[in-house]
Amino acid sequence: MKKLLILASALYLQAAFVQAEVVVIGNTSITSTLSASEVKNLFLGKRKSLPDGTKIAVIEQAKDSPVREAFHSKFTKKTQAQLSSYWTRLVFTGKGKMPEEVSNSEEIINMISTNPGLIGYIDSSEVTDGIVVLAK
Amino acid sequence: MNRKLKYTLIASCLLVQPTFTAYANKDSRIDNIIEKLDKVKISGYLNLTAGKAKKSIYFASNTDGYEDFSVTAETWGGVQIDFKATEKLDFTLLTKFYAESRDYDEAFGVDLAYLTYQLTDQTKIRAGILRVPLYKDSDYKDTGFAQLWLRAPELVYANNKVQRYTGLEILQDFYVGDGTIQVQAFYGQNEDLRAKAASNSNKNFIIDDLMGIHATYSINEHLYKMGVTTRTEPGDLEDFLSIKTNGKPTLHAYGYQAGYRQTFYSLGYGYDDGEWKVDIETIFETATGGKSDNGKYYASVGYRFDAITPYVMYQYRETLDDSKRFKGANVYVHTDGTEQSFFNAKTAEQSIISVGARYDISSNLAIKVQAERYDVENYTIYEKIQKNDNTLYSVSLQAVF
């Protein structure tokens, strides 16, 4: 019985995790939202500004982060290996620089809430007052 | 890796500091070193390839060392250091090493070294030793991990003796709807070490007026690239002449193009939706003088099943101006005033069909296997002189950091 309860709890937690949604966040000074293709262009280094001209740098979560995998599966449609292959092309041709990586969502929120030129992504359950959701 | 390297460098710097330095200064020194090292990014790639050809005949362009099993013919790597000098100015140095040295490339040396000035968000100017973006995938063809295939299409990318140049380049992005058009224009020159290796003289061979303009349009899963590059080949016909024991002069293949202009046109398309990967490219190489014009193309398709992506690729190359070359553009005047014409009578049709797979072991390490069949028919203008085929099996471990 105890084993069954543990199993049920594990399945419930897993289901809750799967249902969590990754959202793109920015500083509260950003007033517009972003389309999926705009998010893709920014996170693949094809654009360096928002449609209104605001200069933007993107922040990635750590390579082994499940949120990172969920974000790229949703927006860029690339696995971590495909992403690495993509950036390799840009880095070794000097046509692009890999985005900065930070270790957790808290760090991303802190950076974005104090810098209007940064965007990143976190799990929707982690959204706080100091940031806005730009895309989900 | 990058971070570990930085910490190692910091530790090394601290170790060599005199021990009697006041502790009060240590924190500021560490901050200073960290600040400087944060401006440095180190990345690298490695291709470790082994192969075995069925027959001991020349196989396409890069793979003529494979009549015996070889683990060094296509093994190489590179380390790139990016230094951010100011907010807008970067310096990049890429060093490359080969497991096997060759006549025209040192086993270890500087591959690229350039300054980048970010004029605006959409405009970059670069100067120094830069990569020639001859065809769709030329500027990263040695970085195996960046490609689906084990090796870039050899028949198409074979005429790549000029992989870099010393000069100036401008990169300009134009935003069109959801897509981006990147225009790359460049001008420069480069020493031709292959011509030097093929010549009978000790002079320097400089490929001059190397210039081109390329445009890449990328939108969603689609990429379209078109470009034109032109260059003047170095040297004179006499530099590539050798006299046989019977007194007759013979001309090395480089002699037919010496002093003449070559132009390369390319049109490519790529599709990548995360599952399907399609690449198609067609190329025309035109040459004044006696060198042959070439028509080339390749088509490739792969499909991703989780971490494994099997693929097939077909490549074809043929000489195009066979009848025109019969007239002969290469004339040698002997010391007694008599003239001798050289005719580049050789023509060819080559094809390669490849089947392979890429397995991503991790996000920065892949193993690839590839089997390919090579068919060639060589003619002179008058007759067929050779028909041959070969099969090559290769395995490669490719990594980036």
Structural classification of chain B: mainly beta
* CATH homologous superfamily grouping of chain A: Periplasmic binding protein-like II
Give the helices and strands of chain A as they follow along the chain.
Answer: HEHEHHEHEE
Strands across the major sheet of chain A, in which order? 3-2-4-1-5
Portion of residues in beta strands of chain A equals 15-25%
What is the topological layout?
The complex is a heterodimer of chains A (136) and B (401).
Chain A: H1 2-19, E1 22-27, H2 36-43, E2 57-61, H3 66-74, H4 80-92, E3 100-102, H5 105-114, E4 118-123, E5 131-135
Chain B: H1 2-16, H2 26-37, E1 40-53, E2 76-84, E3 89-98, E4 108-120, E5 123-131, H3 154-157, E6 164-176, E7 179-191, H4 193-198, E8 206-219, E9 222-232, E10 241-243, E11 249-251, E12 261-272, E13 276-287, E14 294-303, E15 308-319, H5 322-325, E16 330-333, E17 339-342, E18 347-362, E19 365-379, E20 384-400
Antiparallel strand pairs in B: 1-2, 1-20, 2-3, 3-4, 4-5, 5-6, 6-7, 7-8, 8-9, 9-12, 10-11, 12-13, 13-14, 14-15, 15-18, 16-17, 18-19, 19-20
Helix pairs in contact in B: 1-2
